[in-house]
Design brief:
Alpha-Beta Plaits; 28% helix; two-stranded antiparallel sheet; 185 residues; 4-stranded antiparallel sheet
Length: 185
């Protein structure tokens, strides 16, 4: 309690609605401590809703994902298959172009002389998968921008031309292997 008589309200954990059985590990028991629960963040726009899960292990994330799919009566193959709308590498970006692209940047910036991979796909959330795979394929690249919410996702990656080619090829390979139904467009 503070000296002026005011006390901050106790923080309460709000329940997730609707509850999905099995989405979180069971409570601790006599056997030992409970496994850390995945962090779940919901994104909702006019067109889509998405749930972003971040966990300690891939196994915990897979368990959470499977429980959520079971809870809503769906399977992974019900998702939309990713589709590339545009992919191009702009080689040796001029300083004037870098300035235009960097005007709204707050972190990683496009440097003059680098190449720029521009990748647009749908559904938009697969841009996160594309960025992750690009960084695995070409660790020297710089993620300039990632837009994962909306009708389509966009990814801007800078590096050498070879790094951008490796990133693009890996994105194409991984997205092509994802199962799902074709978009109605």
């Amino acid at each position: 309690m503070s000296t002026d008589g005011w006390e901050a309200p106790a923080r309460r954990r709000q329940p997730v609605y609707p509850p999905i059985p099995g989405a979180w590990p069971a409570p601790a028991d006599a056997e030992g401590p409970r496994a850390p629960s995945p962090l779940l963040i919901a994104f909702v726009s006019a067109l889509i809703g998405a749930l972003l899960a971040s966990g300690v292990t891939v196994a915990a994330l897979r368990q959470t994902g499977q429980a959520i799919l079971s809870g809503i009566g769906r399977k992974a193959a019900d998702q939309l298959k990713p589709r590339t709308l545009f992919a191009d590498i702009i080689e040796t970006v001029a300083d004037q172009h870098a300035i235009i692209l960097n005007r709204t940047r707050e972190a990683s910036m496009l440097l003059p002389g680098k190449s720029l991979l521009v990748y647009e796909l749908e559904p938009a959330l697969f841009a996160t998968v594309a960025a992750n795979e690009a960084e695995k394929a070409a660790p020297g690249i710089t993620l300039i921008d990632l837009q994962m919410i909306g009708a389509s996702g966009r990814l801007f990656i800078a590096g050498t031309t070879r790094e951008c080619e490796l990133a693009r090829d890996r994105i194409d390979e991984v997205l092509g292997a994802i199962e799902g139904r074709q978009s109605g467009r």
